[in-house]
Amino acid sequence: MPRPFIIFAPRFDENSGGAVVLHRLCDLLNRSGQRALLWPSREILFDPWRPLYSWNRQRLQRRWYRKHGPYRTFEGFLTPLATPADLKGAIVVYPEVVDGNPLRADHVVRWLLHRPGFHTGRIDYGRNDRYFFFQNAFDDPNLNPDRDNLLRTVFIRDDLYRQVHFGPRSGCCHILRKGAGRPMQHDVANSILIDGLSHQEAAAVFNRVQTCISYDPYTMYSQFAALCGCDSVVLPEEGMTEESWYPDPRDRYGVALGWEGLEQARRTAPLLLPRLKEQEQEANASVQRFVEKCRGYFGD
């Protein structure tokens, strides 16, 4: 049997882009005929060489689950859970925030969902790890020799994020997410914070306000706002240009990088949904290439 894929992932959270794309990868792999399973990122693999450490970690894990509830998946995805017996020979996919190799896998893929070290300040990867990146801006040529290892999954909620209000608009909202901690550049006292809202709540706000301001350059919520008819503006990080932000101009449809790009964003907004649907198809193709490359790296 071909090696299974095990995706090391937090529980499903519709407001966490990283969780969504990891669960979506497992789903797309299964739909393409592969065997893919999720490993809950809080589940500790018992280490017989460090039994006391393992017992303590498992105790903390049980306490966390009692407080926050059980591991969640999304009912629309094919995402079965792995057991320790599934690990033998498996290809394990870790997001870039994971240190080391907690599942002690022989075949490891690091999926760069952001720039390595951005969230943790550390880069603790294995010498033989293979690297794939969610978008070009997250690739690190010092780590990854395979510059065409794009792996992208897309889950477009256009059932929710669509323009239903065509009357007058007023006010603004803002997104922090991975931009939390940046200096505020607008009047937040009169702005609605999107972070933490459900998708239904966020879509309702996007359909009511005139402008959405994002401090996170790469969140999909900026595109969601544009789908709902907002003026969607990303405030660039220091030194960020349109070309370094999204090298492909099609990936900038409907969203302005800085206020000076607002007119262009308005002109290209009608092209955004077709582009996202195109990206969805490209994502399916990138998953197939990912499988082929992994079989080449690690064998069957």
Question: What are the key terms here?
Answer:
2 domains; 5-stranded parallel β-sheet; globular; 300 residues; single chain; alpha/beta; 10 strands; 7 helices
Reconstruct the topology from this structure:
Elements: E1 5-9, H1 17-31, E2 36-40, H2 51-68, E3 91-95, E4 107-112, E5 130-133, E6 172-175, E7 191-193, H3 199-206, E8 211-214, H4 221-227, E9 231-234, H5 242-245, E10 255-257, H6 262-268, H7 272-298
Parallel strand pairs: 1-2, 1-3, 3-4, 4-5, 6-7, 6-8, 8-9, 9-10
What's the short story on this structure?
This protein is an alpha/beta fold and 300 residues long. The chain has helices at residues 17-31, 51-68, 199-206, 221-227, 242-245, 262-268, 272-298; strands at 5-9, 36-40, 91-95, 107-112, 130-133, 172-175, 191-193, 211-214, 231-234, 255-257.
3D architecture notes:
The protein has 300 residues and is an alpha/beta fold. It has two domains: 5-153; 172-275, no CATH class. The protein contains seven helices and ten strands. A five-stranded parallel sheet has the order 2-1-3-4-5, covered by helices on one side. Strands 7-6-8-9-10 form a five-stranded parallel sheet, with helices on both faces. The longest helix is centred in the C-terminal third of the chain and has 27 residues, at 272-298.
